[in-house]
Each structure stands twice: as C-alpha cells, then as structure tokens.
TrEMBL record:
Pfam families: FCD, GntR. Residues 1-11 have a biased composition (Polar residues). It comes from Pseudaminobacter soli. PROSITE patterns: HTH_GNTR. Residues 31-99 form the HTH gntR-type domain. This is FadR family transcriptional regulator.
Amino acid sequence: MKNTTASQKSWPSLAAQARAMASRPTGSASGSLHAMVLNQIGLGIVRGEFAPGDPLPNADDWSAAHGVSRTVLREVIKVLAGKGMVESRPKTGTRIRPRSEWNFLDPDVLAWRYSGTISGEDVRELFELRRAIEPMAGALAAERATPEQVAELEAVLAEMEKFADDGDRFAEPDLVFHQAILRMTGNELIGSLAALIETALLLSFRLSNDNPRGQRHSMPLHREVASNIAAGNGEGVRKALLALLDDAEEDVRRAIAARRGQHE
C-alpha cells in the first residue's frame, strides 16, 4: 500500500467532531443570535415560505418583529448569498434566487432541506449523492491507506461492534468510519468532502434511528469494507460500500414508511 501525505485525523478527534455535530440543531452551530436567525430564514426559504423572486422583508420591519439588529441581518444575508439563496441589488433590495442557483451541497442547505417531511425522492437523491462519492473514495483508500490508518479504522470498527444494537450510540463511530475513508484517499479535495458526508450521514441516521433491528445487520458489510481496504482490494471495497449503501437506503425507506403508518 502507498503512504499518503495527507494527515489522518485520529479516532478521538473525529469522535468529538461527530458528537458536536450530532448534538446541535439543524443548520449552523447553535449558541448565537446570528446562527438562530440564519437557521430561521434559511429554513423559511427552503420550505417555500418565500418564493423565488420574492423580496425578503424590509430590514427595519424584520428587526422590529424579531428583536435583532440590522447588523445581524446583514451578516445573515451575506451568508445566504454565499449559499446562492439570495441576492441583494440597489433599489430592489434582497430577493430569493431560483432553486437552481442554490448550493445544495452546502451542509446548512442540505440540513434545511431534510429538516421536515421526507419524500421518497429526497431519500433517492441523498443516497445517489453518497453513491457518487463513497465507493470511489473507498477504492482509492485501498490503494493509499497506511498501516496506521488501517489500524485506526479497525479501532473504529470495534466501537461499532460494541454499539451495534444501540442505534443512537452506533451513529457516532459509523460517522467516523465513513469520514475516515474519505481522508484515507490522501486527496485533500476528497478529504474536504468529509463535512458534506457528515451532514448526509447524520441525515441518514436521523431518518433510520428508530430501526428496531439496530445496526448489527450492517456489520458484516462494514467489516468487508475494512478488510478490503487492509488488503488493498479497491474493487472489493467499492462493491461492499455499494451494497452497504443499498441496505442503508432500504432501512431509511422502511423507517419512513413505518412513521407514515403511525400517523395515518
């Protein structure tokens, strides 16, 4: 196996990152007025409370209604503009851009999109995204992972085994497992997708966390992924990850169907 020059985050640091992400509300990090306003407006836009072309409310009116300063609103609008969701022009104010211009790969936009009722189309698109990234990254990881990285992956796998019957506690090492594979590619651009995969994975976990089977049924395929990376078998990793994603999508679809049945 080739040595990679990219640094690999350790299991403890990735676990801390996973805990922080899993415990925060949908959208940007909590704890600030800016984040709360950003989350409120972003969710409103994604849910269709403002249609493309609609102006955002006048800053003075919004400030009075929500008790926030114009400075906070300007900062929020800049962030939303960076995500492709709004544009500000002289005389016409700030308006909502067409959905085709939004950056749906932005973790906040992705989280806002999946914060409400989930459709079968939503699930399909989420897993198409994962299939487009993870199997190819896994094949590269098999070529480039160092012995130290393989050992770290095995340690994460042991944590997954420990909590395989506890969906909530299983989610953390599972997130670490999939993120680690991206970073094991040694490709900094692919490694940077870890934040995107983090959001997609946590959305998957949120959709399927009431699975009565837990996640022990997924362990053979996770072990197959890890063993093929250790053996340098890129095609084996790719096939195992595709099968793993197929099973995960089916879990999510079953969970959504069960929830709908409970509310009928």
